[in-house]
């Protein structure tokens, strides 16, 4: 991996490089996505079937687009019992973590008859997108469905592209059943997002769409925002390791590669105060890449978006981490919890040398659907909050309104909204 001195120039160039990975930079795909969305909106089921044949090579129609209980049971017979046990353990951890995020309605009553409050209501129907193709991500199934289940969503619709044989990857189906998906449909890509956003004869319209996908899925979600809610526009994976001279270089190298193997646009960055550590990590990276099965992808990822930055001070390193606002941030320093208190921007923070990033991907419980491309400056991980909405509650007695009515009328008249003022005044004609 390349090693550079951390200064204002290298940091500026790095941030500009990382921004090129954002889905907002892929305008050349937008026309294709828009065409797919419009065709599904007008052609509904028939358009979804046509695109599924075109992109996935599968013959799907109204009779087989929905996954049956028999298909789910067949999937269980194809999944190793040991993996099923791990899925169930991970599900329990994810559920337990997210249950602590639950919010409840509240009401505050006062002696004058004023009642103010907030009503928390789960969303009625949510769509979960799960990538398909050659890869299977049962962990993403759990991470997207479990917070919705904990929130109390009435109906969870999952869509995922089928293989050429018209079937869904067995581990995906098993994870969906374990997590509690209500209906599963064989549809992927931008056409599946369009089906969820607008509804077709087979796939019902949802209130919100969550889940990761390729650039077409990301841009489709961006385009349908407003017709439905979405979680975020996810970009390529990224990791930043913040380390000092006490860090184990072998651990650091292994953790950087855990994200670099996702795809050629993934980002892996080490910011350290130690040149010695930087050089050792670079050597271990070379060693691991020769051994790992996705070595070619890792090499391209590191060539494009892999960086080792050596900072003069730990505070400079922390400042850089906050500017980069990485999806995953590992802290491997002498006092990692103290460093954590100075981190302002990160999707998920992993503290200490035994808190490796894959722990968060699969098992610990916090959600692995995280803000990318610097959006951790203002976005949060997927949570129960994403699957609820809040309504304000206001109730005034006559006594309470009487005490405030002149103030309200004054405010309304200052804004030249006389009907607003009159709405209050008619209740007190004697004044």
Low-confidence stretches: none
Q: Roughly what is the average pLDDT, rounded to an integer? A: 94
Q: Which descriptor suits the 3D outline?
A: globular
Radius of gyration: 25 Å
Strand order of the largest sheet: 1-11-10-9-12-13
* Helix-strand category: alpha/beta
How far apart lie the N and C ends? 78 Å
Summarize the structure.
By secondary structure, the protein is of the alpha/beta class.
Summary keywords:
431 residues; single chain; alpha/beta; globular; 14 strands; five-stranded parallel β-sheet; six-stranded parallel β-sheet; 17 helices
Describe the structure.
The protein has a six-stranded parallel beta sheet, sandwiched between helices. A five-stranded parallel beta sheet has the order 6-5-4-7-8, with helices on both faces. It has a three-stranded antiparallel beta sheet with strand order 2-3-14, with no helix packed on it. It contains 17 helices and 14 strands. The longest helix is centred in the N-terminal third of the chain and has 19 residues, at 81-99. It is globular and about 85 Å long. The model has no long low-confidence stretch (mean pLDDT 94). 42% of the residues are buried. With 431 residues, the chain is an alpha/beta fold.
């Amino acid at each position: 991996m390349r090693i550079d001195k951390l200064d204002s120039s290298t940091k500026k160039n790095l941030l500009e490089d990382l921004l090129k990975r954002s889905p907002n930079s892929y305008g050349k795909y937008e026309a294709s996505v828009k065409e797919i969305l419009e065709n599904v909106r007008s052609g509904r089921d028939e358009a979804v079937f046509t695109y599924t044949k075109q992109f996935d090579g599968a013959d799907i129609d109204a009779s087989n687009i929905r996954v049956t209980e028999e298909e789910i049971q067949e999937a269980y017979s194809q999944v190793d019992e040991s993996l099923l046990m791990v899925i169930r353990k991970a599900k329990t951890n994810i559920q337990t973590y997210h249950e602590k995020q639950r919010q409840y309605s509240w009401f505050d009553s006062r002696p004058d008859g004023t009642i103010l409050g907030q009503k928390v209501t789960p969303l009625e129907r949510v769509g979960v997108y799960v990538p398909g193709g050659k890869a299977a991500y049962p962990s993403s199934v759990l991470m997207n469905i479990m917070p919705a289940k904990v929130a109390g969503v009435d109906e969870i619709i999952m869509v995922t592209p089928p293989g050429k044989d018209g079937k869904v990857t067995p581990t995906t189906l098993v994870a969906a059943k374990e997590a509690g998906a209500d209906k599963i449909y064989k549809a992927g890509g931008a056409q599946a997002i369009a089906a969820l956003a607008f509804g077709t004869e087979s796939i019902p319209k949802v209130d919100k769409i969550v889940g990761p996908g390729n650039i077409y899925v990301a841009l489709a979600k961006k385009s349908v925002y407003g017709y439905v809610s979405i979680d975020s526009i996810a970009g390529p994976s990224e990791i930043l390791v913040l380390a000092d001279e006490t860090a184990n270089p072998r651990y650091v190298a292994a953790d950087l590669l855990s994200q670099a193997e996702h795809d050629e646009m993934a980002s892996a960055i080490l910011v350290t105060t130690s040149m010695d550590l930087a050089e050792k990590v670079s050597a271990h990276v070379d060693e691991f890449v020769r051994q790992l099965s996705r070595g070619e992808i890792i090499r391209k990822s590191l060539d494009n978006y892999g960086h080792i930055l050596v900072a003069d001070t730990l505070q400079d390193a922390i400042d850089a981490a906050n500017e980069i606002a990485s999806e995953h941030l590992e802290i491997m320093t002498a006092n990692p919890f103290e460093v954590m208190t100075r981190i302002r921007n990160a999707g998920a923070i992993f503290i200490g040398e035994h808190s490796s990033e894959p722990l968060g991907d699969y098992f610990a419980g916090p959600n692995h659907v995280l803000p990318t491309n610097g959006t951790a400056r203002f976005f949060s991980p997927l949570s129960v909050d994403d699957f609820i909405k809040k309504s304000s509650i206001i109730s005034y007695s006559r006594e309470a309104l009487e005490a405030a009515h002149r103030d309200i009328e004054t405010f309304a008249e200052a804004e030249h909204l006389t009907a607003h003022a009159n709405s209050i005044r008619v209740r007190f004609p004697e004044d």
